[in-house]
Design a protein that fits this description.
This protein is mainly α. 85% of the residues lie in helices and 0% in strands.
């Protein structure tokens, strides 16, 4: 998770924009909008979520791998955790 105030502010702004996009999608579905604009909105939300995931993952990488590991076991655990995160991101 981003820890610096600037990174946290940027991530929260992204989340709020995504929330706004989801609210717009909710309204579009509620009013019976055409499929094309609904699909475009869904694609925009997916892109925004992917951008958010990328930004948080980058911050995590900096935090975890910015400092040398204290032991081989710690390094292995960091790599295992990051591998799991990347796998879930790519699903």
């Amino acid at each position: 998770m981003p820890h610096s105030p600037q990174e946290k502010k940027r991530v929260l702004a992204r989340v709020r924009r995504i929330r706004g996009q989801c609210d717009a999608l909710d309204r579009a579905l509620d009013t019976g909008a055409e499929c094309g604009p609904v699909l475009q909105q869904i694609a925009a939300i997916r892109g925004a979520v992917n951008g958010l995931m990328s930004e948080v993952m980058e911050a995590h990488l900096r935090e975890e791998f910015g400092q040398p590991a204290k032991s081989d076991a710690q390094r292995d655990e960091r790599v295992r955790e990051m591998s799991m995160l990347i796998r879930s991101y790519l699903k």
